[in-house]
Amino acid sequence: MLRRLAAAATAMTLCAGLAACSDDGGSTEPPPSSATTDTPTATPNEVTRLTFGAYGSADELEAFQRVVDAFNVGSTTRKVELVTWPDHEAALEAVLAGDAPDVFMASRRDLAHLTEAEATQPVSLLLDERGVDFGDRYSRDAVDAFGVDGDLQCMAYSVSPMVIYYNDELIDFDKMERRGLDVPGEDTLGARTRWNLAEFAAAAQFATRRGKADGVWIEPTLQGLAPFIYSGGGKIFDDDDEPTSLALSDEATVDALDRTLAILRDSALTPSPSELEESSALQRFRQGKLAMIAGFRDLVPDLRQRAELSFDTIAMPTLEESATVGDIDGLCISADTEHVNEAADFLAYAVSDSAIETVTRTGYIVPANTEVAGSEVFLGPGRQPLTSKVFNSAIRGMVVPPLLDNGPELLDAVGPQIDDLVTDPGVLDLEQATEEIDESSKAVLSPEEPSESPSE
């Protein structure tokens, strides 16, 4: 049974509707503050100046600037300035160093550091007072992921589940079906959005039939293997809340890995080490030399620019039940802001339909706002990938990991061993290999306390 590792859901009173917005990405006057905090507020003739910190591609940052500009045009008493970082690591470093903007973007993977540093102001009550509807209008899984001890630390903004990108010229499901091969079924609209491991293997084999392309590449990392493990009923950690070890040697996990690695270790289906040294898996996919690659939504804008590439997306293969992994970005209010009410007003505007549509049009994000995620702004009829709805459905099976403050150290400790599971051409003793990985993880997740020297 798949274990959903989402953080505890926050208790929130549901209110109707978001702030009124225009369909073209512009905005009306942002909602006035109704918070009851004792935060200083501006006098009628005073302008409150706020900062908003964001990271992402150049196109995303340009879109965030348009969001800020639209808010500023609609307000005479509050003005926001955009602060940018190259990535979430730089954002986290700035916030933890005490240089947090009033409102800032954060990755859910950094939430443990933020809460430990008490760097965020809980936002559930503030947004509720501004009419932000936490019901069907936002992904419940994404919102819950930012809940800590009953408080919503940040508002979910975008979600990026891992899916399979495939070259639909190398993998022609209609042709495969005519030949009697295993293919994913069609939904009521004729789209192929889900498949099982046997159909995934058949597609990889079909793509290599002429010897001009490799079938599939999955990154040999814990993240790359996690969807297969979870789908097969296995688990990554020994405990959902406070893990002390990886659990790759768990019986169900070993079984899921055994079935998956039979495909991923097949040299007839995957790029050779020399091919990958010459060009990365993503480069090979762009060039039509690789039929399938796992990835996130941020690949879409780049792949759309490859005029010679015809591609689509489909869910991660299912062993027992649908599962995937990914990341969630949220917008947070700084615990140190002197303008809580005004910051909350901007946050409520930034997660509204109009504002999120502006950033969604860049193609990089899957909005946590379900209204926008289900609209043509995101689904983009006639644009690749034709089945963008796969990203939305994948969110429901997305497993959110425990909050770890030593995640990078864990990956450093077990990374080479996990790489060997997939790429080492030698004979694999899977049970022994997974036991060794679990043992290595304990040095990070549950290090032994140094023994005290006997007193003299």
Keywords:
single chain, 456 residues, alpha+beta, D-Maltodextrin-Binding Protein, domain 2, seven-stranded mixed β-sheet, four-stranded mixed β-sheet, 19 helices, 13 strands, globular, disordered N terminus
Our count of domains comes out at 2
Please bin the fraction of helical residues. 25-40%
Shape: globular
Average pLDDT over all residues: 89
The main sheet comes to: 7 strands, mixed
Distance between the termini: 54 Å
Quaternary structure type = single chain
Strand content: 5-15%
What integer value in Å does the Rg equal? Answer: 23 Å
Task: Determine the number of helices (DSSP H or I, runs of at least 4 residues).
Answer: 19
CATH topology label of the largest domain: D-Maltodextrin-Binding Protein, domain 2
How many runs of DSSP E, i.e. beta strands? 13
- Backbone structural class: alpha+beta
At the first level of CATH, the class of the largest domain is Alpha Beta
CATH architecture of the largest domain: 3-Layer(aba) Sandwich
CATH superfamily of the largest domain: Periplasmic binding protein-like II
Question: Could you name the ranges where pLDDT drops below 50 across 5 or more consecutive residues?
Answer: 1-42
Give a written overview of the molecule.
The chain has 456 residues and is of the alpha+beta class. It folds into two domains: 160 residues, Periplasmic binding protein-like II (D-Maltodextrin-Binding Protein, domain 2, 3-Layer(aba) Sandwich), CATH 3.40.190.10; 204 residues, Periplasmic binding protein-like II (D-Maltodextrin-Binding Protein, domain 2, 3-Layer(aba) Sandwich). It has 19 helices and 13 strands. Strands 1, 2, 3, 4, 7, 12 and 13 form a seven-stranded mixed beta sheet that branches. A four-stranded mixed beta sheet has the order 9-10-8-11. A two-stranded antiparallel sheet has the order 5-6. It is globular and about 70 Å long. The N terminus is likely disordered.
